[in-house]
Amino acid sequence: MTIAEKGESIVALSASQAVRLQEMRFCRVLQTSDEGVWRVTDVSRVGVVGLDGLRLIIQPKTPLRSLIFMASYGGSQIAVDDHAFSFEADSDLPTALAASLLHAIGSATRRGLLKGYVASDETSTVVRGRWDVARQLKVRPGIPSPVELTLDDYTEDVAENRILRAALSALSRQERLPERWLKELSVALVMFGDVSDLRVNGPLTMPPLSRLNAHYQPALRLARWVIEATSWARQAGTTAGSAFLMNMAHVFENFVGTVLRESLASDGFDVELQASGWNLDVDGRVRMRPDIVISRRGQVITVADTKYKVWGAGSGSPPNADVYQALAYAVTAGVPEAHLLYVSGDVEPQRYLIVATGTTVVAHAISLDGTPEELIERVQEMGAALSGNRKEQAAGQSPR
């Protein structure tokens, strides 16, 4: 059974299935006048859910090809490889991610697994590595032998490989994944046999980008979304393997922010994502966290918030709450404009002048149809519009 991420879907569910779906807190499930028929709305995630023998596919409003590309996009991915996105158009999300992740891992590990130095502790009578004096005094004060040591091992058991292994393992546990991909996942896992399990407590911490792991970035980004999609299901109380749900709002925000950061850097702009330390009131009790803050030489130029919502021609004005939020960001930053970035077709930006403050809120729509190159080009054009003619202006004070 399939439900749409956009709008509402009418589905046949048992009472227990409807209750379980509502308990997962990613959609609203409302009973209709017909017994056993339910209305599903306000869907905030896409993927697959298993409910008492029923396989429920949440179909994204974004084309799968674009979705996978946005999830895998990284600074090292200069050229787009169409083969990575050649899966069937009607594939569900776990299948599409499995196909793309395997391809990305194959490209990343073509010359073998990444290796690095990992510190490990050892107790020995033979001194090698570094003597950990603090640990020696704590464990056996006044006793010279055995010696507490710290060794730097050159190994494949690094954070990057642990993340890839965890994503492969998570996908291999998915129910009803096509046999072909299950076999390929099993083969790929063999390569990571000497890599330890990843322990995730809270949000996944990604290794910092470096010259050594740049070729791993597309695979790591895909792996991150796989791990989040499966770990969220466990946190929501579903049974193991019964749900694979991806937060498309986060994917859209990260993709747009990453492209803006890369495209504006050459002009001297800094792009901060999920900016912290912003407060609306003097006492700091009303906190804010704008998605995108563009600054130059330490001064904020403009603020933008991504909205994974359809908006465009015929949609009317943006929701009032979105405009209020953008206005609060602009007033706090002391800038004349703030921007709302929606998902939709090719429509002209709409400007809303707030008379009381002299602030303009601009609503944009970014189409997610087309090729990966077209997606990047649209966001780059958006970056030029956001920085605009204010490159040389000092625009307000720090919101801190």
Overview of the structural elements:
The chain is α+β, with helices and mostly antiparallel strands and 400 residues long. The chain has 4 domains: 61 residues, no CATH class; 140 residues, no CATH class; 40 residues, no CATH class; 140 residues, Alpha-Beta Complex (tt1808, chain A), CATH 3.90.1570. Helices cover 34% and strands 24% of the residues. It contains 10 helices and 18 strands. The strands form 5 sheets. A 6-stranded mixed beta sheet has the order 11-14-15-16-18-17, sandwiched between helices. Helix 9 links the parallel strand 15 and strand 16. Helix 3 runs parallel beside helix 6 and helix 8 packs across helix 10. The relative contact order is 0.11. It comes from Microbacterium commune.
Brief synopsis:
By secondary structure, the protein is an alpha+beta fold. It is built from 10 helices and 18 strands.
What fraction of the residues are assigned to beta strands by DSSP? 15-25%
Distance between the termini: 49 Å
Number of strands: 18
> Spans of 5+ residues with little confidence (pLDDT < 50)?
76-80, 389-398
Tally of helical runs: 10
Assign the structural class, choosing from mainly alpha, mainly beta, alpha/beta, alpha+beta, or little secondary structure.
Answer: alpha+beta
**Order of helices and strands, N to C?**
EEHEEEEHHEEHEHHHEHEEEEEHEEEH
Outline, from the CA principal axes? globular
Q: What topology, given as strand order, has the largest sheet?
A: 11-14-15-16-18-17
Into which percent range does the helicity of residues fall?
25-40%
Radius of gyration: 24 Å
Report mean pLDDT, rounded to a whole number.
83
Give a short account of the largest sheet.
Answer: 6 strands, mixed
